[in-house]
């Protein structure tokens, strides 16, 4: 029984990690149609932000809290730079963006290697996040509980921005019908930039969270980028709720398969399930209905 | 403006495609040309006052993180040998090639080093797949490769010298140590590739013969980052020790998860065979304190040779740098080659091979001797414990060098493993 609950939690936790990694991507890829291979490197930048902050702030707990908004800013600004310099020149040319952003990803990895060195750096976990939390019936790792809460908070905040603010209305307007949005006076240029800033910023936050679980090194992003795209594609383009369901679904599936078989087989099984699912429903779990002709 | 830009990018795309195509063709022609020369006799040029050697490590790609450190210690050894007058009166001149973490690139660059640079010997390689890719190249062209990393054994090429540990100098002593400590149940965690799979086969055979129960054997794909499930299984198994053959970044995720799940080194120690000084910092000292490692060298080894080595290394590369087992094995390999060449009084691979047996060197890890039959070296096994200072301290030592036995011929329980 305890193993079952432990596995359930492992699945939810993996789901929350996938969700954090994929949330920003669901904005930039899902809403804007940009295949950004450098998304993983924005996560890496977020992770290194924690490392840098820890060099200044001695208390690991405070450093983590400070790093969350700072990581968002670092990721967001890198994204903004990428959008302004390169991506805006190649909207509607997904293959070109794929190649260009992949190149940018390699450059960013090398920059990290030159600045911080090739070996992984040690990011300390705050004492209140190491060890387990007793839930009465079982014990779960505190760091994973924190990441679960952080991902829920990130989704909540993004949902509020998209549905309750004028910026969110503009973003949704541009996604549904770019030409019409332009004719009613929305600056699609500004909206694109802001969307990309938020999406990349979310990658930064994901990077901050990942320092609690894994290694902080130049290749951190590459470990997650494929899974992140998988989540967005399975969830359906342009819908945050699809991303949420897909992330937790894939997380739980991976944990369940892995418990009954092995990690390698579970990965294969998850890929097979997603491929079969996309055969039946190519648009993903949810798809957006638009009247745009594009 | 817009169309101009679009045209510009289209042109760049075309150009880069063309470059790709040309470079692809280039590598293909070099492949075919090497096929013709591979059987030719050694072209090592010893007429001048210097002789060329090749350093072949991954300076880019995922393995660069580890292999750069080996490249550093190799360069230190070259510098020291040259400062003392070189080998047989000839200064070493280094040809460095990047294996780029790709076995095929390793094979290609090895061919280049032997056939077109005509180096006297090549030092490098890390992953078993890179070694296996280079093996036919060295055997075909009768070159010499010095391979500095512990590996899964079951190999003995006449053209390769293995200066890292084989299984009976690392894994078997670690199991002896655990048995001595009264460990009755084991859990095996490894990355999903050749070394952990072979190592675990050996561990299973040993456990069966020695009354140790293996509670679980789990593999994670290389680069796996989520160990919640594996640690869950480990926790549920109630095993009293863990044998860890994970590689690279997976170690970080595994040890963080292990700690988060409330497991501790005092109750469930983890013995790792791929975490050395260089990796401790990346995994985080906090996550590793008290955990065990199995190697043949630690920076803390107390010997005059090691003191000189560590001091020289830090003087050359900086006081914050550490020295590790593969780095030491690489450093030692160069001096072993020097001793072989001086014994043979010749740089020719056949003469060096014939002179190799019995050559010994007072290495930082202690005295090592080359086995003329299997080209491995006798080394002392050391079990270490990670300290709060981030260094590894010797807990247990085999006391004397263990003769290499890559096929585990002298172990009754291992019959059938090498087949």
Radius of gyration of chain B: 23 Å
Could you give a short account of the major beta sheet of chain A? 2 strands, antiparallel
Class of secondary structure makeup of chain B: alpha/beta
Strand content of chain A: under 5%
CATH level-3 fold name of the largest domain in chain B: Rossmann fold
Query: What proportion strand of chain B?
Result: 15-25%
Count of DSSP helices of chain B? 13
CATH fourth-tier homologous superfamily of the largest domain in chain B: Response regulator
What share of the residues of chain A lie within helices? over 70%
Morphology call of chain B: globular
Distance between the termini of chain A: 52 Å
Radius of gyration of chain A: 19 Å
* Low-pLDDT windows of residues of chain A: none
Order of helices and strands of chain B: HEHEHEHEEHEHEHEHEHHEHHHEEEEE
Shape of chain A: globular
Short structural summary:
The complex is a heterodimer of chains A (294) and B (419). Chain A is mainly alpha-helical.
What's the arrangement of secondary structure elements?
The complex is a heterodimer of chains A (294) and B (419).
Chain A: H1 2-31, H2 39-56, H3 60-85, H4 94-116, E1 132-134, E2 139-141, H5 142-164, H6 166-176, H7 178-183, H8 188-210, H9 222-235, H10 240-260, H11 263-280
Antiparallel strand pairs in A: 1-2
Helix pairs in contact in A: 1-5, 1-8, 1-9, 1-10, 2-3, 2-4, 2-8, 3-8, 5-6, 5-8, 6-8, 9-10, 10-11
Chain B: H1 2-37, E1 50-57, H2 64-83, E2 91-98, H3 103-116, E3 122-124, H4 128-141, E4 145-147, E5 160-162, H5 171-180, E6 185-191, H6 194-209, E7 213-220, H7 228-237, E8 241-245, H8 250-260, E9 270-272, H9 277-283, H10 285-288, E10 292-295, H11 304-317, H12 325-344, H13 349-356, E11 360-363, E12 366-370, E13 377-378, E14 382-386, E15 392-397
Parallel strand pairs in B: 1-2, 1-3, 3-4, 4-5, 6-7, 6-8, 8-9, 9-10
Antiparallel strand pairs in B: 10-14, 11-12, 12-13, 14-15
Helix pairs in contact in B: 2-12, 3-4, 12-13
